Amino acid sequence: MASYQTVLLDIRDSAAYVTFNRPEKRNCMSPTLHAEMCKVLDEIDQARCKVIVITGAGDAFCAGMDLEGCFLEPFDKPELMAEINTNAFGWFTRLKNHPAVTIGKVNGWCFGGGMALAGVLDIVLAAEESTWGLSEVNFGIFPGGGTTWAYANNMPSRKKALYYALTGETFTGKQAEEMGYATRALPLAQLDAETDRVVKMLSRLGRTVLAKTKEVYEKVRWMDFEPAIDYEMAKLWELSRETNDDWVRTALASFKRREFKPGTQSYTLTRDV
Ligand code: ACO
User: Fold this and answer.
1) Of 117, 150, 228, 241, which has the highest C-beta tally within 10 A?
2) By residue range, what is the domain housing residue 241?
3) Ligand 1 contact, 110 CB (< 6 A)
């Protein structure tokens, strides 16, 4: 595994653990961090990880874009600014479309671009004590670079979404859970254990079923019912083919022998393709 200046990467048991490591700067995302995240995702892809967990070192998850490094310093250097944006939006987009299940462990401060990051992840476990905010209006802009997309798609109530974007008022991880931005909020002291539990649960499942569950969800959300049925069935037979019909040959055969209860247990994979 390569070593990075701004990010820690640990890959074990098909899970990748990514820690933004600029606690002295509240893990805000510098140009170096953006460039390094592109390489981190290359490593994760090569290892064919099933799960990616992203968190921050110290008391911050991510204080957004590095306002000096990404805006002030390159402001009069358009080529540099373009390079920073290509890296930043490149890895954000890759992560949003990633076949692995992506989990945010929001341990503390989460502002602006940090909320964009939490917004593109599949699962967010947040410390109740964490502080979130769309602070852009506080310095005269609106949430950009995918952040408006993220809050509009994760705060289903228009009244709440616009309230927080317009006022810049902060809210807690507990409120993020109530609004649906976080999957679950729990005391900071329990965050690591709960994340480990969810990672373990996902790791037992097949790579293909996880990736296709995500893919089908994202596409079907925007479809009418009848085309959705056709698409879901086409994808189901694609999954079946790619996994050598394991769901019938192994899982349902094992259920017939009453070896497991699919409602509360998963079957033992023969091959994790
Ligand atoms: N960009 C650049 N530097 C930052 C950022 C940031 N987004 N966030 C924190 N820092 C720096 C601080 O300037 C400070 O640097 P210094 O030690 O050189 O003075 C250091 O990190 C520590 O920050 P403090 O403010 O001292 O930490 P504190 O715990 O008191 O406050 C807080 C944390 C509330 C997160 C505060 O740092 C803050 O308001 N940060 C900006 C958050 C923000 O609005 N981000 C932009 C979102 S919009 C977007 O992403 C486009």
Assistant:
1) 117
2) 207-256
3) no
102 within a domain of the structure (yes/no): yes
- Indicate if 70 and 120 belong to the same structural domain: yes
Instruction: Clarify whether residues 120 and 216 are in a common domain.
Output: no
Per residue in 10-64, pLDDT (tens digit) is: 999 999 999 999 999 999 999 999 999 999 999 999 999 999 999 999 999 999 9
**CA gap 64, 102 in Å, rounded:** 19
Q: What is the pTM of this model?
A: 0.97
Can you tell me which atom of ligand 1 is nearest the CA of 109? 35
Residue identifier of the C-alpha nearest atom 22 of ligand 1: 25
Q: Is 223 left (phi over 0), alpha (psi -120 to 50) or beta?
A: beta
Distance 54 CA to ligand 1 centre (A): 19
Q: Are residues 251 and 144 in the same domain?
A: no
d(CA 201, CA 103): 13
